[in-house]
Each structure stands twice: as C-alpha cells, then as structure tokens.
Design goal:
- The chain has 6 helices and 10 strands.
- With 216 residues, the protein is of the alpha/beta class.
- The longest helix is centred in the N-terminal third of the chain and has 17 residues.
- It is globular, with a radius of gyration of 16 Å.
Length: 216
C-alpha cells in the first residue's frame, strides 16, 4: 500500500495498557460487526482479517466463533503489537502477520482461507489498489469460502449523508485517488474476480457490508 497523506480523522487510535491500542470507531462498531460475522461466517475453518488495526475486531470475532482459527494481518508494527496483546489469551488467534493486501501476489502466503474479512480500508486506498486487493482475496479463498467487506460506500454514485460527504471530501482533498468507492463498482469488481455477491447489508452509521462467496 502506498503511504498516503490521510486526514487526522481517517485512522484514530490511542495507546492503552499492556501494549494495547484503542480505536474509537472499532469500539463503536464491534457489536454490530460480531452480529454480522456470526450470521455469515462458516462455523469452522481458517479465517483471515486484512488490516486488523488495533486488534479489537478480530479478538471479538474469535470469541464469538471459537472453532475458527483466526489470522490477523497489519502493516503497522505498533498495531501488530496491539493485536498480539489483545490476542495473548485467545488460543484460536495467530500472531499478527505483516501483510500489504494492496500488493499483488500475497494470496500465495495466506491461501486456503474459508473466511476473509476487511473492515474500513477501501476508502483509504485507490481504485487500482482496491482491484488488486479483491483479486488477491478471490485467489486466497477456498472454494465456497466467504468474503465479508465492510465500510462506507457511495450508493449508485451518490454520498447519502452529510457526514459521508464531509469525510469523503476530506479524503480526496488530501489524496484525489482515494475516497468512498461506489457500491455498483464493488459489485462489478466481485463479478470480474469470480466472486458471487450474496447480499449487501445496511449497517449502522450509514455503512454497508458486502457478503460474497467463491463458487465451489
């Protein structure tokens, strides 16, 4: 992933005890995401989270779905340390791996996953990086595996809330290549990568979740 000049509101986390970091956004949406993941994830198998951030999400997922083996990934070393601090008491969470999911070829390192989750990243990367990421996800999934994608998106090319308009504008002012992606474009990208779009779920705070499957 290219190092981008993001606005301060794009990725906020503060240091807590024992090496852990706390992201307010993760604190707010963890319960809703756990409900979403529990409804759509396989009960057993191998799960990967891309851009695990502080580790708050993946550790909550691992508690809700203890029969899945979870692999967190993150490019920032301080956040990898935070993930490992959160996961130290969870036997089904591996050590955080250094993974740039916007680079080509990473699927060969983390292949045969039954579930891949990505939360709140695509608005911070370019469309070309988005295409590379989804292409690699499709290759990393097992036949029948699920991909859960969550975040803020445009609907039919439109920003549908004042908060979304402000945040999107702040992003593109810092870097015109990033910003909210369009829901229709994501659906077309899934199709191009041979992923079957099963459902688009309306989530709190005007976010969307895309549920996709790699055909068996």
């Amino acid at each position: 992933m290219i190092k981008r000049n993001l606005p301060p509101s794009a990725s906020v986390a503060t240091a807590a005890d024992d090496g852990k970091m706390v992201a307010p956004a993760a604190t707010r949406n963890t319960d809703a995401l756990c409900e979403l993941v529990s409804a759509h994830a396989p009960q057993r198998g191998k799960a990967l989270e891309i851009a695990s951030g502080t580790g708050q999400h993946i550790c909550a997922f691992a508690k809700h779905l203890p029969d899945l083996t979870w692999q967190p990934t993150e490019i920032d070393p301080d956040r990898r340390a935070s993930i490992d601090a959160y996961a130290s008491v969870l036997p089904n969470v591996a050590a955080a791996a250094d993974l740039n999911a916007t680079s080509a070829g990473w699927h060969s390192r983390v292949s045969q996953k039954d579930l891949i989750i990505l939360v709140n990243l695509l608005h911070l990367v370019s469309w070309q990086e988005t295409k590379t990421l989804v292409t690699e996800v499709a290759k990393a999934l097992t036949p029948g595996g699920r991909f859960i994608l969550y975040g803020p998106f445009q609907r039919a090319g439109q920003l549908t809330s004042d908060g979304d308009k402000r945040f999107h504008n702040a992003l593109i002012q810092q870097d015109p290549e990033i910003g909210y992606k369009n829901d229709d474009d994501i659906a077309e990208l899934f199709l191009a990568c041979s992923l079957e779009l099963l459902e688009i779920v309306e989530m709190p705070a005007n976010n969307l979740a895309f549920i996709a499957k790699k055909p068996a």
